[in-house]
Every structure is written in C-alpha cells, then in structure tokens.
C-alpha cells in the first residue's frame, strides 16, 4: 500500500484510521512479499491450541501466540478480539442492529442483517475492502458485509483498538482446520513471520497490482477521481492480447491455484497417515 497514492487523492482520513491502530507502518511496508511454497507448507502442518500456532516448514518449527505475533509484525496485541463466523449473538443484538442501520444508511431495519457494500458510504466501503483483504481475508462474499465485518469497519471508523494478531490466529485456525476450500490468507504477513524465524524462502514475490488498493478499488467504493489521477498507482493493467501470456498476473493466479491443490493433497496424506497410525 503506497501512502502517497492516498494522500494525492485526499484520503488522509483512511490513513488516519490505520495510523490510529498503529498498523500504517506494517501495511505501507513496500518490502513485504509472499512466498507461496512456505505458505502452503505452513498451513498443511499448522495446529492451533489455546491461542498458540505451531507449524513446521522444512526442518524448522514456527510457533507464536498473539503477543509474540504482534511483536514480530510491530503492531499492538490488545483490543477487540471476538472472532465469530456462525453464532453472532455474542456480539449483542442491539449493537448489531445499530451497526446494520448505520452502515446500510437505513434506519428502518428491524433486525441485524448483512449489508451490501454498495449501500455504505465510500469510506465505509473502503474500510470494508481493507477488512476482507487484510484482517479477515477471503476470496468470496466480497459484496456483503456480515455482522463481524460490520463490527470491524465500525471499530476502524471510530479508531477503537482491534487486536489484529489475535484475530489472525483465530482465522488461521479456521483456514487450517476446515474441510471447506479457503484462500491461504495472510501471505504477506506470514512471510514476514517466516523470515523472523530464519526460514529460507524459495519463491518470494513482491506485491502485485491485484494485491493493492488502487484506483479501481476506490472507484468501486464510490469515489469520484479526477481525470488523469489513475496514473500514479493501481491503474488497470493492459488487457492481454488473446493467446499471449499476461506475465506476472497470470503467474500469481496459477501459483494460487496450484498452492490450493497442494494444500488439499498434503492434508489428505496427513489424514490418511493419522488413520493408519490409529489402527
């Protein structure tokens, strides 16, 4: 994420939301990269027990809790840490209704509900996109904010602390322990963790245009940008000529698909090994 891009478009308010969480330095770090092979191996061997993540990559063990993860990433490990994907009642019905009404700009709602991205203000849409790309990353359902998304957007907007490391660990546990297909989340942040533990990276790839919040994202969030302003960051890449490779973008997409297949295969092998050992 390039800070000058947001400053040039008059979006210092968005930067302030990240600065209030003490996250700006982390997400504005242009040295971050992602190494797919190590990420797939991390998730294949990952276990989360009482808030402690343990995995192995090669012959090295990776272990961290929320406090140590916060130290590695350089962010606080305190604040809102409620992670719920099914039963949302723990968040409180009255509070959730208030959030749904405010974010949907519809005071007539009678019960908490998911909110369409397009019904939000541009700033709330932008914060929502940040949430589903970085706090609780997902590849599907990107046009509907569920009540947890709404809580996180609201906390960001009000600049109340969010415990990013704790939420990461809970979401990592969900990714690693479900039979449902999930994107391998937190690639850039976990690669920073791998480097901290001295793991040699086989294929570290810098952030691509599809990873950035750029002009297309802002326009999709309802911002009107001045003519010519798209030339600084996030301009839409040229459409590939039919029959020709689109280069890095195509490589990234192919790597992501391959990593998902490898993770499924490794998990299946581990399950088979456990079943044999239990006999």
| Measured distance between first and last alpha carbons | 51 Å
**Low-pLDDT ranges:** 228-250
Rg is 20 Å
Overall SS class: mainly alpha
Number of helices: 12
Strand residues, percent: 5-15%
Q: Count of DSSP E strands?
A: 7
Q: Helices and strands, in N-to-C order?
A: HHHEHEEEHHEHEHHHEHH
What's the overall geometry? globular
Q: Overall mean pLDDT score?
A: 82
| Assembly category | single chain
How would you characterize the largest beta sheet?
3 strands, antiparallel
**Order of the strands making up the biggest sheet:** 2-3-4
Roughly what percent helix? 40-55%
What does this structure look like?
By secondary structure, this protein is mainly alpha-helical. The protein has helices spanning 3-8, 12-20, 24-27, 36-44, 66-73, 93-104, 122-135, 147-158, 164-176, 187-196, 215-220, 248-278, and strands at 33-35, 47-49, 52-57, 60-64, 115-116, 144-145, 204-206. A three-stranded antiparallel β-sheet has the order 2-3-4. A two-stranded antiparallel ribbon has the order 1-7. α4 packs parallel to α12 (248-278).
């Amino acid at each position: 994420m390039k800070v000058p891009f947001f400053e040039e478009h008059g979006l210092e308010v968005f930067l302030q939301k990240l600065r209030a969480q003490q996250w700006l330095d982390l997400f504005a770090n242009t040295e971050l990269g992602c190494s797919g092979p190590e990420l797939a191996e991390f998730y294949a061997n990952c276990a989360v027990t009482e808030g402690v993540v343990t995995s192995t990559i090669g012959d090295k063990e990776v272990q961290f809790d929320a406090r140590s993860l916060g130290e590695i990433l350089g962010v606080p490990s305190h604040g809102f840490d409620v992670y719920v994907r099914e039963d949302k009642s723990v968040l409180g019905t009255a509070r959730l209704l208030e959030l749904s009404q405010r974010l949907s700009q519809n005071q007539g709602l009678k019960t908490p509900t998911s909110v369409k991205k397009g019904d939000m203000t541009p700033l709330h849409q932008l914060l929502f996109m940040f949430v589903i790309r970085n706090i609780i990353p997902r590849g599907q359902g990107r046009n509907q904010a569920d009540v947890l998304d709404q809580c996180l957007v609201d906390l960001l907007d009000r600049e109340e602390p969010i415990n990013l490391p704790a939420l990461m660990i809970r979401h990592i546990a969900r990714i690693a322990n479900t039979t449902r297909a999930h994107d391998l989340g937190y690639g850039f942040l976990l690669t920073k963790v791998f480097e901290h533990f001295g793991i040699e990276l086989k294929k570290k790839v810098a952030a691509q245009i599809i990873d950035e919040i750029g002009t297309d994202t802002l326009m999709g969030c309802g911002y009107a940008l001045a003519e010519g302003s798209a030339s600084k960051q996030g301009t839409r890449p040229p459409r590939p000529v039919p029959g020709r490779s689109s280069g890095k973008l195509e490589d990234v997409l192919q790597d992501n698909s391959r990593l998902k297949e490898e993770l499924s295969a490794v998990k299946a092998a581990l399950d088979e090994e456990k079943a044999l050992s239990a006999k």
